[in-house]
Amino acid sequence: MKKAFSKNLPFLILALFIGLLAYLINGYMSLIMMDVVDYAVEGNPDKVLNRGVIMVVVAVILLLFQSLLVIAKGFYRKKVNLDFKKRYLEGVFDKNINEFNKDNISNYVSGITNDINTLDVNYVDGIFELAISLISFAVIVVVIASVNALILGIIVLMILLISAFSYMMSMPIKNLMTERSILYAEYTGYLSEVLNAFRIVKSNDLTGRVRNNFHQHGKNLQQKSYQIDKVSTFIYAAQNASFNFLVLGVMVVSVYFTITGAITFGGIILIFSNLGLIIGPFRRAGELLPKIISSKVIFKKLEDSLLNTQSYDENIIIESIRNEVSFKNVSFGYDNGNILENVDISFVKGGKYLIT
Fold it and tell me: Are 158 and 249 in contact (CB under 8 A)?
């Protein structure tokens, strides 16, 4: 399944390149804004007007590239999802007929719906969002470094410490996500069985029993989702509290550097306005990395469902048929027993036969 993702890496790279251009333009606009503020403080209206006009033009260009980024991202996700489903269906049709008949078909239905949807949200989109966050961080690092490299180093050090704490707190979600994937398969399987046996259920007055079992499966699934949401809420609350302290620390440090004259008033405005681009990538990494890592379990589950544990030669090529095809002393069956036993039969070329 990962080959389907690797196949579409050029589309991911294209989308990220557009994102890089968008964030470079955004960084340049931040520097212009800093100049506007500094010129305003100096009381230089001509330069304020000149830089302000440039900032408006740059803002229009930025809007264009941000729109292109949204389109490129959507196209990339669409291509990966289509290839995921195509590759999975091809794998299903390559399954041995004996092993396919032994398996619960609902496992394949759950794979192409629930599991591939989870891969789209957690892995495909997760990798894009993580990469674009790192790009935005790299650009803003260069911008702030041009203002004051020391204050940048202090901010990055604080962010690294808090991000490491946030990442360790996020790890429990991995096991819960794996358990929910299994419950999704069981839920889909039970629903498929009930619908296939609808007449039997109605004829034998099993509606009450089926309803209770269905509610139990749904309850188990929702309970697991609730556990994930609950753990995520505590984790994100702790992360937000940590990042709030970080923002406070950055404000204190920036004000101190402004008082000492190390940065201008425009510089402190630049730092505050781009604080989200500095903190955001680390916050997003704390949210996205556990989801991306947990997706490995889903990849393995999908791949394992397509494996053939035994090898059968089911495709015998017959170059030509002269008069008839004959079978002598042929037996055929599945693991639970033979269907045909020591059969002798001939099929004459051009004849019509019905086998029941």
Answer: yes
